[in-house]
Amino acid sequence: MKIKTFSAGAVFKWTKEYLIKVLTQARNPIVTDPMLVNALTRIDRQDFLPDTLKSQAYNDVELDIGYSQVLNKPTVIAQMIAVLKPKFGGRYLDIGTGTGYSSMLLAFIAGDEGHVYTMERVQWIWEQASQNAKKYPEIKNIDFLYRDGLDGLPQKAPFDGIHVAFALETVPEALKMQLKVNGGRLVCPTTDMNLKVIERKGIDEYEEEIVPGFIFDKAQHGLA
Predict the structure, then answer these.
(1) Which of 34, 36, 49, 130 gives 144 a disulfide partner, CB atoms 3.0 to 4.6 angstroms apart?
(2) What's the rounded Cα separation, in Å, for the pair 16 and 46?
(3) CA-based torsion, 104, 212, 121, 74: positive or negative
(4) What digits encode the pLDDT tens for the residues 66-79?
(5) What whole-number distance in Å separates Cα of residue 151 and Cα of residue 140?
(6) Whole-angstrom Cα distance, residue 89 to residue 115?
(7) What is the CB neighbour count within 10 angstroms for residue 29?
(8) Are 97 and 128 in contact (CB under 8 A)?
């Protein structure tokens, strides 16, 4: 999978329509799944930002959301969800809620027959994400949990997919074991600037792919 990098120009201002065009119509598009295209169209990144940052909602840049946390570039978020391969009716775990944008994209795709559990360790950010989600009252298949997510959520496993929003040195076995057998996928950045994609093929059988070129903040432990 080829990594694509885009930068927001000083003069040209990215719009939502232009961002979606970049994601879906480039020579090697990041997003090809119609369900993800629909989610990106329906779930507006601007709705997950404070007023002071809304003007930058569609620029392909990281945005500081406070407490040393960032909202990742929209192209990076789209790439991670694309390799997770979410589907209608799926059950997903999102570790590191942030503003709630990625979580709501997953919830939109999973639909009424699926469910998303998203976990955030910073209370203020968790509260903001929960408020952001209320802008989409029709999406009810999501639980926002205030807790450290490094151990996953075994009581709600197995999951069709697990999305991790921060870098780990190694992917814990506990997370891998929470994947659904025969197709459950885990997407996790690593501290060596890669993205690790793991698919569970059997009880103790996993297939791994390394996608290079991703830089994420390192995981932090405990509630804040």
Answers:
(1) 130
(2) 9
(3) negative
(4) 776 788 899 999 99
(5) 25
(6) 7
(7) 15
(8) no
| C-alpha span between 190 and 182 (Å, rounded) | 24
With tokens 């999978």, the residue in question is 1
pTM assigned to the model? 0.91
State which amino acid sits at residue 124: W
Contacts of 150-153 spanning 24+ positions with Cβ under 8 A: 150/95, 150/219, 150/221, 152/93, 152/95, 152/178, 153/93, 153/117, 153/119, 153/178
Q: Which of 61, 74, 108 is nearest to 89 (CA)?
A: 108
Question: Are 160 and 90 spatial neighbours (Cβ–Cβ below 8 Å)?
Answer: yes
| In contact, 109 and 160? CB cutoff 8 Å | no
Contact 219, 196 (CB under 8 A): no
Cβ–Cβ < 8 Å for 204, 198: no
Residue in 208, 166, 159 with CA at minimum distance from that of residue 189: 166
Cβ-proximal residues to 32 (8 Å cutoff; 6+ apart), any chain? 24, 82
Q: In the prediction, which pLDDT does 11 show? A: 54
Are residues 162 and 137 in contact, defined by beta-carbon separation less than 8 angstroms? no
Amino acid of residue 9: G
Let me know: does 72 contact 96? Beta carbons within 8 Å: no
Q: What are 16-41's pLDDT values in tens digits?
A: 999 999 999 988 899 999 999 999 99
Which neighbouring-strand residues pair with 162? Answer: 93, 186
